[in-house]
Amino acid sequence: MEFNERLRVSRKEKGLTQVDLAEKAGIAVNSVRLYESGKVTPKLDAMRKLADALEIDINWLLNGFTLKEHDEEFIQRLQGKGDVSARDLYLKKHPDDEPAPAKEKAPQSDVDRLMEGLNAESIRKLREYAELLLLGQDAQTAPTVPDDKEPAEK
Known about the structure:
154 residues; mainly alpha; 2 domains; 9 helices; DNA binding; DNA-binding; Helix-turn-helix domain-containing protein
């Protein structure tokens, strides 16, 4: 499901019209129509307003998934901390599913594997999100998120 579909579904689940959503978010009705049609992708500020108006996680609008506070293991894994296996992450996300095949440790390349199916815009947004996560760390020990086009900063 793409952004425009997630926006439309979320709006309808809340029982809002496009006009209602526009008023609640403080944006133009025409913008909501363009976003839902898929002709225009809103900037991050407009996405935040839409997510707030719909009372949903902005990650749902951006990527189709949410990253809950209790998913600390996943955050630690993105930051290169902790001892979290791929099996642990799978079972946390799919507790009712058949258990995933056990693995000793999740390979370092799991983040790369997760990013393989993403388009360039989603990768940019994921990097932006990772940067926000790293802001909470001490500036001297915080690793940088490498960009394919530029060398990583020290």
